[in-house]
Amino acid sequence: MRFGIIGCGRIARNHVSALRAVAGVEVTAVADVDGQRARAFAAEHGVPDAFEAVDDMFAGGLEAVSICTPHGAHEAGVLAAARHRVHVLCEKPVALDVAQAGRMVAAAEAAGVRFGVVFQRRFWPAAQRIRAAIEDGSLGAPVAGGIVARLNRDADYYAEPWRGRQASEGGGVLMTQVIHHIDLLRWFMGPAVWVSGRCATLVPRAGIDVEDTAGAVIGFRSGAIATVQAGTTFQPGLGVHVWVSDAQGRTAGVMEYPEGVGSADVWPRPGAEVGDLPLGAIHEHLVPYHARQIADFVAAVREGREPAVTGRDAVRSLEIVEAVYESSRSGTAVRLAGH
User: Fold this and answer.
1) Where in the chain is the domain with CATH 3.40.50.720?
2) Sheet bearing 2-6, strands edge to edge
3) For 80-117, b where at least 16 C-beta lie within 10 A, e where not — what string?
4) Is the pLDDT of residue 276 over 80?
């Protein structure tokens, strides 16, 4: 399958590695609004063609495309793929808001193309085991759950001009980091129907207007309740724990520590290094699971089925994040539409 990549930043490097780890996939073209950057990226990674205009890239006969742009440009990339009837795999979060995401899903469905969104943590063996245990009844339907995310993002992380800005990133710790774990929680617990939450920016950083701290309670259609505690203010970052518990008190959890490495262990493994991994190393740990998701996406296209994580899945996770923001602004619980 011939893949193109839109956006030539750090995220695109991870996509190249993950795509090439999947049998039968070729990366044949890249596009970026900065044509010089696209050409340099193509030369560095051995990609045959580089383009400044995405329409020119699509004219080359691609079968699928990965969207690796900043959040605010996801919609344009997905809509372009839909226009050209090319299957599309988009980085998370799917969009800056649910309205954008809805347009993207509608365009992909109208064009008859497969639309997947990258939530590769679903492919951790520990996460897969929890899902399987819920499905086979060895772990009952969850009645409670939670996320505790104690992460660190330093000044270098926010050096990219689009990061840390509401207008271009859409949010902070919930939108960019913990939406992965919200996706896992929803995958384990089912549809969410109400949310109450608060967000704040507690560590002063120049030019940053997104939340670095958030707390929320989520209610699910089943009657289950989960809590979310999230922050990027911890030094060192202590990782993320996602857990669920059934009516008999049986509990299963995924601990992400160091960041990017998922384990069924609640505590760090003996001998695990204390401290934060470089961001590049975090993504390197995720590449094998990213590749598994790409393999599933390729199979979905070939088999005419939906991918494991669809655009609609991503919209539902984004709805939760958006509802936390709305609840934080209004001081009241927010019901989620359509659930």
Assistant:
1) 2-117
2) 49-51, 26-31, 2-6, 64-67, 87-90, 115-117
3) bbbebebbbbbbbbbbbbbebbbebbebbeebebbbbb
4) no
pTM: 0.83
CATH class of the structural domain 121-274+316-335: alpha beta
Does an H or E element contain 91, and which? none
185-228 pLDDT, tens per residue?
999 999 999 999 999 999 988 888 999 999 999 999 999 999 99
Query: Do residues 181 and 147 lie in contact, with contact meaning Cβ atoms separated by under 8 Å?
Result: yes
Instruction: Return the H-helix or E-strand segment holding 103.
Output: helix 98-111
Give residue-wise pLDDT tens across range 49-106.
999 999 999 998 999 999 999 999 999 999 999 999 999 999 999 999 999 999 999 9
Contacts of residue 180, defined as CB under 8 A and 6 or more positions apart, other chains included, come to 92, 119, 121
User: CATH number of the domain at 2-117, out of 3.30.310.50, 3.40.50.2300, 3.40.50.720, 3.30.930.30?
Assistant: 3.40.50.720
Beta bridge partners of 31: 6, 51
Q: Are 301 and 162 in contact (CB under 8 A)?
A: no
